[in-house]
Amino acid sequence: MHAMTTYCQVTGARPVFGRSVSHSHRRSSRRWSPNLQRRRYWVPSLGRTVRLTVSTKGMKIIDRQGIDVVVARMLARGERL
């Protein structure tokens, strides 16, 4: 079994690190993680399904532009599917 990636394969969104600041102004480290989902998409140009780790913003991009366009762009930049 593979470990789930910690970044969106469509947008490239990764966790962001920073500090929580309390009312008394004490600081502690924290992390903001993108809302990642594992989704299967049927890609007609490849003739198969692909499983992607995408953020919810990435899902909206796929809905707007189409899975073929997004997958072609991912393959052009060397992303493994």
From TrEMBL:
This is Large ribosomal subunit protein bL28. The gene is rpmB_1. Keywords: Ribonucleoprotein, Ribosomal protein. It holds the Pfam family Ribosomal_L28. HAMAP family: Ribosomal_bL28 (MF_00373). InterPro entries: Ribosomal_bL28 (IPR026569), Ribosomal_bL28/bL31-like_sf (IPR034704), Ribosomal_bL28_bact-type (IPR001383), Ribosomal_bL28_sf (IPR037147). GO terms for cellular component: ribonucleoprotein complex; ribosome. It comes from Actinomyces slackii. One of its GO terms (biological process) is translation. It comes from the Bacteria. GO terms for molecular function: structural constituent of ribosome.
